[in-house]
Amino acid sequence: MSAGESLVGLEVEVEVGAVAHGGHCVARHEGRVVFVRHALPGELVLARVTEGSDGDRFVRADAVAVLRAAPGRVEVRCPVAGPGGCGGCDWQHASLPTQRDLKAAVVSEQLQRLAGLDVDVVVEAVPGDDDGLAWRTRVQLAVDGDGVPGLRRHRSHDVIPVSHCPIAHPGVDATGVTAAPWPGVRSVEVVVPSAAQEPALVVVVPTGRRPRLPSVRASVTLLDAEGTLERVSGRSWVREDVIAGDWRRGFRVSGSGFWQVHPGAAGALVGAVLDGLAPRPGEQVLDLYAGVGLFAAALAHRVGPDGAVLAVEGDPRAVRHARRNLHDLPGVGITQGRVDRVLGAMLADGLTADLVVLDPPRTGAGRRVVEQVCSLGARAVGYVACDPAALARDVGYAAQHGYRLASLRALDLFPMTHHVECVAVLVPTGE
After folding, report:
1. 202 Cα distance to chain centroid
2. CA torsion angle for 345, 382, 106, 152 (degrees, to 10)?
3. Is 303 within 8 Å of 331 (Cβ atoms)?
4. Do residues 279 and 199 both lie within one domain?
5. Are the CB atoms for 391 and 364 separated by under 8 Å?
6. One domain, residues 276 and 228
7. Which helix (H) or strand (E) holds 188?
8. Boundary of a domain, candidates 20, 39, 73
9. What pLDDT is recorded for position 256?
C-alpha cells in the first residue's frame, strides 16, 4: 500500500483501551492509534476505518462487530445510533452507570493531564429524564434537499431522516415537526419550554427567500443569516421556570438564544453554584458570560438588598432578555460587551469582587480572562464548564495565578452523549 492511500473501509480486529474525550475509545493496530466509536473499554471488536490514510498517526473507526463484550454493554434504543448513523448519541450502547463512569474518567484524565491534578470524579444524575431518554427539550433538525427533516450523520453533512428521537422530550414529537415536509428550509429547531402550559416554539432557518411553511402545533419564527428573528405565529421566545431549593424564578429566552437542553439542568447548576460558593448577604458578585440572567438572579437572591451583582454578557439579544428578566432586582447591574474587554476596563477602574461566576462557551474562558478574574481577589470563583478539556486548561491557568481547585461536581446533563457539565470552585491557594 502506497503512502497516503486511504484506509477507509479497512476492517481490523482490535482490543479496546481507555475512553478518550469525544465519545470514543482508544485502540492500537500495528502501532497506529485507532479512535473507535460504539465500543467500550476492555472489548474485542471488529473496527471499520471511517477516516484516515496510510501514514497518518491515527485513524477513526466504528466498531461494526463486538467479539467480546464489556459488562456495561446494552442494546441501543435507537435504530440510527450505531455505526454510520446519527452523530448525536455516543453511548447508547452503554448502561447509564457505565456512561457516567466513562465521563468521570474523561474529566479525571483531563484534569490530570492539563492541570496536574488527581481528582476523584463522580458524575451525578439529575432529575428530568426517563432512564436517560426523553430529556432533550431543544432539538435542531437538519433538512435534506427533499425537505425531509432529520439528524446529521456523525462527522458529516448527510441528513438521516428521523421521525422520532428517543432522547428528545415528548413535546418535540407533539409539535408535528418531524412528520411535516420542509421544502426551502435549511434547519428546524424545536424548543419545548419548562414552564407549564407554555407553547413550544419552532425556529426555522430558510435556505433563501421565505418558504411556504407547514402547519405545526407550536409558535413559529424565522431566523435569517444575520440572526434576526421574524415572528410568523405565536411568540418568538419561550418562558423557562427554574427551581433550586427554596428559590424559584421564570426567565424569558429568545428562540435563538442559549438555554440548557435538559429540563433539570438549570436548577441543578444553580444549586451547585450556590452550594459551592455559599454567597453571603451584602457580598459583591461578578457574573461573567451571564446569558439571560440565570445565575445573576439566584445570586442576587442570596446576597440580598445590601449586596450587588454585576452581570456581563456579549450577546445583544441575551442582554435584552436579561434586562427584562432581572428588571425587578435593583441590586443587579448588566453590562454588554466581550468579557475580557469589560473586565479590563473595570479592573483599570479598581473593580473588586467577593465572588465570581463564569459560565463560558465550550471553548472556555481562556488565559486572559482567567488572569483577570484571579486579579480581582475574590474569596471564591465558580466555574461552570461544558467541556472538561477547557475547564482543566483554565484550572491550570488559575493555579499559576494563586487559585486552587477546592471542589468539583460533574452533572450528567446529556445522557447517551459524551458531554458532561462541571461546576468547579476555585479559592485562593492559601485557603
Report:
1. 20
2. -70
3. yes
4. no
5. yes
6. no
7. strand 185-191
8. 73
9. 86
Whether the pLDDT of residue 153 is over 50: the answer is yes
> Could you read off the pLDDT of 93-122 as tens digits, one per residue?
999 999 999 999 999 999 999 999 999 999
Can you tell me the mean pLDDT for 397-410? 98
**Tens digits of per-residue pLDDT, 74-89?**
999 999 999 999 999 9
Q: Which three cell numbers stand for residue 309?
A: 451583582
pLDDT of 1 reads 42
Set of cell numbers at residue 423: 461546576
Whole-structure pTM value? 0.96
- pLDDT-above-70 percentage for the chain: 99
Average pLDDT of span 325-345: 97
Mean pLDDT of the chain: 96
386 among known catalytic residues: yes
Q: Which domain holds residue 381?
A: 262-428
Whether residues 219 and 274 fall in one domain: no
Residue 190 in grid coordinates: 424545536
Give the CATH number for residue 299: 3.40.50.150
Out of 78, 89, 374, 386, which one is annotated catalytic? Answer: 386
User: Is residue 104 a part of any domain in this protein?
Assistant: no
HEC readout, the chain: CCCCCECCCCEEEEEEEEEECCCEEEEEECCEEEEEECCCCCCEEEEEEEECECCCCEEEEEEEEEEECCCCECCCCCCCCCCCCECCCCCCCECHHHHHHHHHHHHHHHHHHHHCCCCCCCEECCCCCECCECCECEEEEEECCCCCEEEEECCCCCEEECCCCCCECHHHHHCCHHHCCCCCEEEEEEECCCCCCCCCEEEEEECCCCCCCCCCCCEEEEECCCCCEEEEECCCEEEEEEEECCEEEEEEEECCCCCCCCCCHHHHHHHHHHHHHCCCCCCEEEEECCCCCHHHHHHHHHHCCCCEEEEEECCHHHHHHHHHHCCCCCCEEEEECCHHHHHHHHHHCCCCCCEEEECCCCCCCCHHHHHHHHCCCCCEEEEEECCHHHHHHHHHHHHHCCEEEEEEEEECCCCCCCCCEEEEEEEECCC
The 3-state DSSP class for residue 143 equals strand
Task: Provide the pairing of β-strand 149-152 with 138-143.
Answer: antiparallel
Q: Pick from 236, 251, 279: which residue ends a domain?
A: 236
Output the domain CATH number for residue 63. 2.40.50.140
C-alpha cell at 3: 503512502
